[in-house]
Amino acid sequence: MIDNLIQFIARLLSGIYGLPVVGGSYGFAIILLTIFIMIMVMPLTLKATKSTIRMSMVAPELKRIQKEFKDDKEQMNTEMMELYREHGINPVGGCLPVLAQAPVFLVLFQVIRGLTRRIQDAPFSDVVYKVYDVQDRAADAPDPNSFYPRYLDPTSEMFRDLIGEKEMTFLRVFDLGAQPNEILSDSILKSIPYLIVIGFLVATSWYQQKQITARRSPSEDGDESPVLAQQQAILKYLPFLTGIWSFFFPFGLSVYWATSNSFRIGQQAYITRAIYSKKDEMEATFQAELHERKKAKPAEPAKPQTTDKATKRPKETNGDGTSADPEVPVNRVDQRRQRELERKKAIQAKARAKKKQTEGGSSSRTTPKGTKPSQPRRKKR
């Protein structure tokens, strides 16, 4: 499957290179191929984002279940699966689209890297040069630094233009087959355009991470999750690592990274505006769906009388089997909903008290000047 995907993307790249609008430009072919792949996988990204939002809606109840049944793993898994089934959520719905994208980008990375393969890096190249030496034809041997692209069809126009060439020129400034660290060691002046692109690559990577982390909010009680804080600390260094890696890879891969980062910045801006700005509406729709799903459930058989475990006395029920007392839940779903509502009210009250304390300061009783605070009266014997 991976080989078929590699061959497909390689044929797609050579086909884009042959378009009249591209004009035989290696850099524009890589840019257009990257944009095309990003557009193809964008629906998966949107689906993963929506699934993540739905998971965040049930996160408080999920944490409560994990805390309540931490000593009973089997019961905890049962409660969690019941919660997912009740809310119509696939627990891996946010991961599968992302995992489906990973092979595509790895294959795209491999294809672009294969363009810059040299003859000396090709398999059995040492044997070929040995044969030339044995036949006293060393002068007829091909230059080991010339390109011998991988994955491309030998009959394609892109392969014929690359074979035997030593440079993959783009905009008459860049060599897509060269590594920036080698250019920097040869000439600082020639490396300036490469350093500018690498700086743009680091800046776009940093801004993209900032867009993602800006949408992440702390928990409802105002405390930031330790896992979230650790992830943010790691993500701070990823843009700089990308800049370091780009020094030791062919520059064509830096063009691919810069293009994908620019596209993702626009994509994240669209997701923030079109999805996260309507998160409240999604939550309202989500709750309405739950209400409709609850109404659509078949009613339980009517029970004339049940016993309240807390008071050991019968409790009244309606004709449809529901509790006559609105404060007493009937089934496990209602109990969970009531506990979640009480927990949210407690968290909100705690947050209001904390906010009031920080704004108004701690209030202390003061006594008039020149008087002593009242002492408790001693009880007469």
Order of neighbouring strands in the sheet with most strands: 1-2
Overall spatial form: elongated
CA radius of gyration: 33 Å
Classify the beta-strand content into a percent band. under 5%
Describe it for me?
This protein is an all-alpha fold and 381 residues long. The chain has 2 domains: 2-116 and 168-280, no CATH class; 117-166, no CATH class. 61% of the residues lie in helices and 3% in strands. It has 14 helices and 4 strands. It has helices at residues 2-17, 26-57, 59-68, 73-87, 96-115, 125-134, 157-162, 180-186, 188-214, 226-235, 238-247, 251-274, 279-296, 332-360; strands at 169-170, 174-175, 306-308, 313-315. The strands form 2 sheets. The protein has a two-stranded antiparallel ribbon. The protein is elongated, with a radius of gyration of 33 Å. Residues 219-225, 302-330 and 362-366 have low confidence and may be disordered.
Summarize the structure.
With about 375 residues, the chain is an all-alpha fold.
Question: What are the defining features of this structure?
Answer:
2 domains, two-stranded antiparallel sheet, single chain, 14 helices, mainly alpha, 381 residues, 61% helix, 4 strands, two-stranded antiparallel ribbon
